[in-house]
Design brief:
The protein has 24 helices and 17 strands. It is α/β, with parallel strands linked by helices. A five-stranded mixed β-sheet has the order 10-9-13-11-12. A hairpin with a 3-residue loop joins strand 3 and strand 4.
């Protein structure tokens, strides 16, 4: 057997793949083969490492050298100097990956990773997601083996109940309790469903797990099937995730070939089959009954409850429905025990939570932290703080989560703490905003999103959300009235209280939270006809500072309507009657002489 002395780990997730990581992999393989080193050096396409801002990411072991923003052109240097001569190319390393003594730092000592604890994401960026042998080598299917040989279905459910694992898709319902109800339902046919739809803007936690460690999620689903008495499962994944679908298909085929899926699993007498159902990307299909309706070929619309899905779900049979991250937590809980899992997080929100960190922040990416980690730790310690300007707010949990502000920076992010302030963790999207963000516009943006995504079944959601969106539209264009604030409050409360499903019940959270914490911005838009953040075009004026303008004429040459005039080497002026407020002039000005007020 050949001894591999170096592993070149290249991120093969969607984010890095879109930045040519596939070409980087092929170039590494080509150059390594040219030098006859293919038996000594292995190039591995992994899942997401998490630090998307630094992608494409390449990590070379055993040194743990963390190369950031990799290009095809830099492959030659790494091959010639690092892989052949054993000298790390330090100028290509991630800026924090070298210590004060100019030595390579381990990955977990970099600020982005220091406070993280990976459970669901443990194998992402570590193994080849397309190789079942690598998953097995990292204790893959060990938990399944334990369930098949040492535990009864009731014992599995008891472990999940004691672990305190709650659904990571948004509602936070106890997973063990859901499995207990499904197991108790009397039926000849039962199902396990995985919600992999992930419709929140800016969220990519579930996608990264499916792309980087698909077997982990599948193992969790098989265990759920055995615990609840289900022999068939469905993965409902959005069609916009082609790489995730491809890797899920490969994983399922490998599991069937190894006797892990199908009839008589590993000779245990247990059966479990798994299907992939691709959805069209409807946000409402994140709701359980709408999701099962879509799998059945019906229009994705929620129904009244009861009956619950655990009693009558997919094809009118008892169904246990959890999301990707929830299932990915199951194998380590079974393997290491409920007490181990309860030792992470808080008393009532146990374990870890994955978050997609995006927006106006220095280190965008995928993180996983213990429940109860504060917003300050995530934004400033892990994320590196706001990229431009000052911190203003975080939109948590997607369109229906709500806003967290500066006064919430020390808020522990867990189910109870966020609920107390009228927000939800949701699936885990965190969009960071600076002081150049208009909170009225943010509310309008999310209401426009939910207006388009509403299925229209109930009147409060169908009629109420468009009315709210129209009011916000008027306010951002300077034609709102002070009475609109009371109307927004009233309509939002009605939609929240009277809507049928989770979409409608939480859709107005962005409006209610921005009214609560940024009411002064609403008043400024209405009374002063000004956007304090300078983001709403209709309420702003483009202005050239004569003390900064050197008269280079670049702004005038790039103005699409000829609104800028002035002589060469003299300060220019903007004709506000012609100006479109498009910002093209400000983008081209190297001297920051043009501002939007």
């Amino acid at each position: 057997m050949d001894l591999i002395r170096s592993h070149v780990m290249v991120c093969g997730g969607t984010n890095c793949s879109s930045s040519a990581s596939g070409e980087i992999i092929r170039e590494f393989e080509r150059q390594i083969a040219e030098k006859g080193l293919e038996k000594e050096i292995k190039v591995v396409r992994t899942g997401c490492f998490g630090m998307c801002e630094a992608g494409p990411v390449v990590i070379v072991y055993p040194e743990g050298a963390f190369y950031a923003r990799m290009t095809v052109e830099n492959v030659t240097r790494i091959v010639d100097e690092h892989l052949v001569k054993g000298r790390v190319v330090k100028e290509l390393l991630y800026k924090e990956a070298v210590d004060e003594d100019n030595k390579v730092k381990s990955l977990d000592s970099v600020d982005f990773y220091k406070k993280q604890r990976r459970v669901a994401l443990r194998n992402c960026g570590v193994i080849d997601p397309e190789n079942i042998d690598e998953y097995i080598a990292f204790d893959g299917y060990k938990a399944l083996g334990k369930v098949l040989t040492e535990m009864t279905p009731q014992e599995v459910i008891d472990v999940m109940l004691k672990s305190g694992l709650r659904g990571r898709g948004g509602a936070g319902f106890p997973t063990g309790m859901k499995w207990k109800f499904a197991a108790a339902s009397q039926s000849d046919k039962k199902y396990v469903c995985c919600n992999a739809d992930e419709g929140d803007p800016g969220a990519f936690m579930d996608r990264s797990i499916m792309e980087g460690d698909p077997h982990r999620m599948i193992e969790g689903m098989i265990i759920a099937g055995i615990a609840t008495g289900s022999e068939e499962g469905y993965i409902y994944v959005r069609a916009e995730y082609p790489l995730a679908v491809e890797r899920l298909k490969m994983a399922i085929a490998d599991d069937e070939a190894h006797g892990i899926l199908g009839e008589n699993i590993l000779g245990s007498g247990k059966n479990f089959r798994l299907h992939i159902n691709r959805g069209a990307g409807a946000f409402v299909c994140g709701e359980g009954s709408a999701l099962t309706a879509s799998i059945e070929g019906e229009r994705g619309m929620p129904r009244t409850k009861p009956p619950r899905s655990v009693d009558r779900g997919l094809f009118d049979a008892p169904t246990s429905l959890n999301n990707v991250e929830t299932f990915a937590n199951v194998p380590p809980i079974i393997e290491r025990g409920s007490a181990w899992y309860r030792g992470i997080g808080t008393e009532t929100s146990t374990g870890t939570k994955a978050f997609a960190l995006t927006g106006n922040i220095k280190h965008t990416g995928l993180i996983e932290v213990p429940m109860g980690t504060t917003l300050r730790e995530i934004v400033f310690d892990i994320g590196g703080g706001v990229k431009n300007g000052k911190f203003k707010a975080v939109q948590i949990g997607g369109p229906s989560g709500g806003c967290l502000t500066e006064e919430h920076l020390d808020l522990p992010l867990d189910f109870e703490s966020t609920k107390k302030i009228g927000a939800i963790i949701g699936s885990g999207g965190l969009v960071v905003m600076g002081d150049d963000t208009c909170m009225v516009e943010i509310a309008r943006f999310f209401m426009n999103f939910t207006k388009k995504e509403s299925c229209g079944k109930c009147a409060t959601c169908r009629e109420g959300i468009p009315k709210i969106q129209a009011i916000l539209e008027r306010i951002t264009h300077g034609s709102g009235t002070i009475e609109d604030i009371d109307m927004l409050q009233e309509l939002s409360s009605v939609v929240k209280t009277c809507s049928l499903c989770g979409l409608g019940k939480t859709a107005t959270n962005p409006v209610l939270s921005t009214l609560k914490y940024f009411k002064d911005e609403y008043i400024a838009h209405i009374v002063d006809k000004k956007c304090p953040a300078g983001a709403c075009r209709s309420l702003c004026t483009m202005w050239i500072d004569p003390l900064k303008c050197i008269g280079c004429t670049k702004c005038a040459r790039n103005c699409p309507v000829g609104a800028i005039t002035g002589e060469l080497r003299k300060p220019h002026q903007i004709d506000t009657s012609k100006c479109l407020k498009c910002g093209a002039c400000a983008e081209k000005c190297k001297f920051h002489a043009i501002t939007r007020e």
